[in-house]
Amino acid sequence: MRVHEAGELEQLAGLQESDNQQQGQQQQQQQQQRFGKGTKSSIKRSKARLAVGISEMQRLQQVMQHPMYKADPIQAITNHLNATMPAAPQPPKQRQGQQGAKKKKKSKGGGGGVADMQS
């Protein structure tokens, strides 16, 4: 009877492995569908990314060959940023007499009570 049970256990283990493989394949298919692998749009995006990467590498090579960059890279980058970036706006200035002071409200009458009404 033990031989029969061992054979059943092996069959169950084999079924479990094949079930795990099927689940793994299903998960891969779901991920591919979710992320668009194999579709025309993903191919277009990857080609566009590749084209941008190539143009950026060429631009970097041009920068590195520039004589000003070769002489002083930090100064070359600083000059480029100063020439291309707009100046930062200046914060509004506070008036000298009103720094942190609050104005007190002035009342129009004396104290405002019954005495003011009788006069």
Automatic annotation (TrEMBL):
Main location: nucleus
Compositionally biased residues, Gly residues: 109-119
The keyword Transmembrane helix appears for this protein: no
UniProt keyword Cell inner membrane present: no
Region of interest (Disordered), residue spans: 1-48, 75-119
Segments of skewed composition (Low complexity): 21-33
Keywords on record: Nucleus
Highest taxon listed in the record's lineage: Eukaryota
Compartments reported by the entry: Nucleus, Nucleolus
Pfam families xref list: SLX9
InterPro entries named in the record: Slx9-like
Family the entry assigns: Belongs to the SLX9 family.
Name this protein carries in UniProt: Ribosome biogenesis protein SLX9
Organism: Tetradesmus obliquus (Green alga)
Taxon lineage: Eukaryota, Viridiplantae, Chlorophyta, core chlorophytes, Chlorophyceae
